[in-house]
Amino acid sequence: MGLERITAVMQGKHDNYDIDLMRALIMASAEASHVDADGAHAVSHRVIADHLRASSFLIADGVLPAKEGRGYVLRRIMRRAMRHAHIIGCTEPLLWRLVPALVRQMGGPFRSWRAPKRSSPRR
Predict the structure, then answer these.
(1) Which of 4, 48, 81, 101 is most exposed, with the fewest beta carbons within 10 Å of its own?
(2) Cβ contacts of residue 90 below 8 Å, gap of 6+?
(3) Residues 22, 66: Cα–Cα separation, whole Å
(4) Contacts of 58 (CB under 8 A, 6+ apart)
(5) d(Cα 33, Cα 40) in Å, to the nearest integer?
(6) Closest Cα to residue 25, out of 52, 8, 49?
(7) Along the 123 residues of the chain, how does pLDDT read in single tens digits?
(8) pTM of the model
């Protein structure tokens, strides 16, 4: 079981997206986009929240968008989140505006974590 499933069990939830970690990000997405979190675009808010978290952790791990490997995965995750932001009607970039909400949710557990130093950029 991953973090979300353990949290769902401990919080008595039947859906990983109803846990406090994800719900705060979903609500931040809804607030920033001015689109109801539980309406017709609920799936888009879930995708945005989930992919924001995944892409932020990949970037914090030193991964950069690329044409292959982990960088390609990051690129695809970011594009999918951006596509869902477009679907809900956002014409301006949205994901960067949600980072403070992610830091509020996950900043405590990861505050002491430091990305490895790289001597030269990856190609």
Answers:
(1) 4
(2) 33
(3) 27
(4) 70, 73, 74, 77
(5) 14
(6) 49
(7) 788 899 999 999 999 999 998 999 999 999 999 999 999 999 999 999 999 999 999 998 899 999 999 999 999 999 999 999 999 999 999 999 999 999 888 877 666 555 555 555 555
(8) 0.83
